[in-house]
Design brief:
Distance between the termini: 21 Å
CATH architecture of the largest domain: Up-down Bundle
Largest sheet: 4 strands, mixed
Structural class: alpha+beta
Number of domains: 2
Amino acid sequence: MKLYNYFRNSAGQRIRTALHIKSVPFEYICHKDLGPGGYRKVNPQGLLPALEINGRIVAQSTAIFEYIEEVFPTPSLLPADPIDRAEVRAFAQLIACDIHPLHIHRVRNYLSDEFNLTGDQTGTWYHHWVAEGLASLEEMLRRRTRETEFCYGDLPGMADVYLTPLMLNARRFGCDVTPYPLLNAVDEACLTLPEFQAAMPENQPDFDRYGPHVTQDS
């Protein structure tokens, strides 16, 4: 399998983490330039990540995650009980669908280019919506049937794989994460694990080439 990625791509970080947890080998292929040209021949959406399996391309991190979970079921990153699985998926989709798009560089560029927002105004807009999302995630953890070290269990799963890149981005963009003790506790627990550390941006092969000062994100 080939994972088309970029070290700061947080959606790709989810996939890297899942692959490391399941001990699935993959080839890391860096694509920093997502403009018209070569990469769109791989993924017409022009977004990262993309996973190539036997010449076929799967895009969108959640679709990739589900493929990995189905093909490499051990260790499972989803609970066995259907309602528990639904709760985990809801947590992950809140991150992937509601919060993640807000920090993408092209979205923030559109606000500044089309509506003449200053950097401070764009930041205020971003911080507001991320705070809304983090508060919802914190409340979801507060309502769990039992308190666990990770989001929804004693071992990390899909929710944790999605949470750690979100917390990293929130801090990178200056969001105040102190009001969310449950999220912080899970994030800290995840980052003690080698599989999560291996997926961190600074541990990717292209970090030394482009990081840590670059501004592109996706």
